Amino acid sequence: MRKILLGAILAAGAAVAGWMAVLDRQNRLRWDHWDVVKPGGLYRSGQLPGDQFAEAVRRYGLKTVVNFQLPGPEMHEERALARSLNVGFVNLPMPGDGFGREEQFRKVLEVVDDPGRRPVLVHCARGTCRTGSAVALYRFERDGWTIDDVAAEARRQTYREGWIPGYIYAMATNKPDSDLHAPVTIDERNAPGELDPTPLPEAAADEPR
Questions:
Q1: Pick from 161, 168, 88, 84: which is nearest to 120 by CA?
Q2: What class does CATH assign to 29-173?
Q3: Which pLDDT tens digit goes with each residue over 91-121?
Q4: In a 10 Å sphere around its CB, with 0-12 CB exposed, 13-18 middle and 19+ buried, how is residue 146 labelled?
Q5: Which of 7, 39, 73, 164 has its Cβ near the most Cβ atoms within 10 Å?
Q6: pTM of the complete model
Q7: Beta bridge partners of 89
Q8: For the chain, what are the domain ranges?
Q9: CA–CA dist 28, 16 (Å, integer)
Q10: Beta strands 120-123 and 88-91: pairing type?
């Protein structure tokens, strides 16, 4: 009986160790909200401790870090560490709810668009609200995602409030829905005695009617 119990304990321990190894390889065990937005271009996370930040720089070749946190010990420590690692540092302090100013989020696009500053890591304290807002604008402006796509990614990154995708969508100049549907404004009074409106061109055969 004891041998069976001991064997079960060892098997369970091995299973847990194996699962933790899998999580570690996926960066889900140690790195807070780490994710790949664009391989070789843009990454996101929460606040990484110094050793994890240094490992991320080594592993992914990071050239720039964008920090959304308000000035404080963690921000200043990361700034000094980035300097020691020859990594560019950008601080765009904004409230923790992610409702930053448009020019702050467009600064992120400016940094990511510069080949000399990529790969870029963007992060806040937990990698959900402020980081999610910045990534949302990137998805709209550079990837042409719809608001539903962005909302789904935000939920996967544990953002539950639901406000950020719409807030950032209002900033985006690239509106994927408009590009897809090419809407035309029609304003017809249809009052008695008015001339018939100019006929609209026939829809193509493969277009929905």
A1: 88
A2: alpha beta
A3: 999 999 999 999 999 999 999 999 999 999 9
A4: middle
A5: 164
A6: 0.72
A7: 65
A8: 29-173
A9: 15
A10: unpaired
Is the separation of the CB atoms in 32 and 126 below 8 Å? yes
Q: What is the DSSP string of the chain?
A: -HHHHHHHHHHHHHHHHHHHHHHHHTT-SSSTT-EEEETTTEEEESPPPHHHHHHHHHHH---EEEE-SPSSHHHHHHHHHHHHTT-EEEE----TTS---HHHHHHHHHHHH-GGG-SEEEE-SSSSHHHHHHHHHHIIIII---HHHHHHHHHHTT--S--HHHHHHTT-S--HHHHHH----------TTPPPPPPPPPPPTTS--
Encoded amino acid at 94, one letter: M
C-beta of residue 132 within 8 angstroms of C-beta of residue 154: yes
Inter-helix orientation angle 50-60/73-84, to 10°: 40
- Which amino acid appears at position 100 of this protein? G
CB 69 within 8 A of CB 45: no
Give the CA diameter of the chain.
Answer: 98
